[in-house]
Amino acid sequence: MSYTSENFLRERVKQKLRRLRSLFTTPHEEECIQDLVPCYNTGGRDKPSVLYIGLKRNYGRPGDGYSYEEVNFFYSLFHGGYPVYRFSTDTLYETLGYEKMQRLLLGACIFYRPKVLFHLLHHDEIGGDTLKRISQDLGIPTVGWFSDDHWR
């Protein structure tokens, strides 16, 4: 059987789905990637896609407005025309908890295949082993921005 581009694409999608299913315990989690990790500027093909990880709310507190990271980093990427996937650690942690949030991040990296992962961690929302898997196993470069964390 000769592989046409359609067959090749179908096989790639099946392979991605198998990898995603191995990360999640229920199909519901797999289906939530697009809802929980939205994409912006999908038409920006001339710029690399970025998976942005940071707090959405000021210090993660509801009612305090947007965080410094959200306003100055996420919106700079967004208005700069970069295809950007928003992974808001405060809202996702609140919804999913730590372990499921780690699996969601791995699933989003497999599903979206960003060119770079850019994170601004407030605490240790993303585990070192998760970042290592993303960098080494998936081959996605990770960039960490640590503003005033003298203890890290």
Structure description:
With 152 residues, the protein is α/β, with parallel strands linked by helices. The protein has helices spanning 5-23, 27-31, 33-36, 68-79, 89-96, 98-112, 128-137, and strands at residues 39-40, 50-54, 84-88, 116-119, 142-144. Strands 1-3-2-4-5 form a five-stranded mixed β-sheet, with helices on both faces. Helix 7 (128-137) links the parallel strand 4 and strand 5. The longest helix has 19 residues, at 5-23. The radius of gyration is 16 Å and the shape is globular.
Q: How many individual β-strands? A: 5
The helix/strand order is HHHEEHEHHEHE
Question: What's the mean pLDDT score?
Answer: 83
Shape: globular
| Beta-strand percentage range | 5-15%
Number of helices: 7
**Poorly predicted residue ranges:** none
Structural class: alpha/beta
Largest sheet: 5 strands, mixed
**CA distance, first residue to last residue:** 55 Å
Helix content: 40-55%
The gyration radius over C-alpha positions equals 16 Å
The main sheet orders its strands as 1-3-2-4-5
